[in-house]
Design goal:
The chain has one domain (3-162). 33% of the residues lie in helices and 11% in strands. The protein contains five helices and five strands. The chain has a three-stranded antiparallel beta sheet. It has a two-stranded antiparallel sheet with strand order 1-2. The longest helix has 15 residues, at 54-68. The chain is globular. The two termini are 20 Å apart.
Amino acid sequence: MSDLDEARYSLGQVARSVGLPESTLRSWFRRGHLGLDLGGRLREAHGHAHAVSLRTALWVGVIAGLVELQIPAARAAKVARAFVHFGEPDHQTGARRHPGELFSGHGVWTLLVVRPDDDHGVIIRADRKTPLANVFTGPSGRTVGAVVLWLNQIDMRVRTGLAHVEAPA
């Protein structure tokens, strides 16, 4: 099991790390936007907290970032799966970005691109030399608008927010 998948954070801890009310996060779980399939575990008895993994916490962080950009939570959860559920090769270095991880390298950014009417986010590796014109080109080749989320900043916010918390009881 990866450190990303070890269930060790309560929903309250995750909510605080991303700046959400805990009730909002619990609502997302109740509505099925999120699940415990990424290393989480259900509470075993009344009064015990659900425990979620760092990967789930990162998923919550990406969803929260997309919601801030006016993308509805249900769609944001689907789009955010591109980051936490899937990896892809870094065509410039030959390395691989694993699910829930950033592309590595100094001055390298990991971006999530969300195009209109597309529930599948696209993860791209960018640096200062990366032409971003293709971000705004849809599958048909037509220029479209897009929301671009900087995942490095989300990753840092979540990890920093969770760095000093105690594991749930």
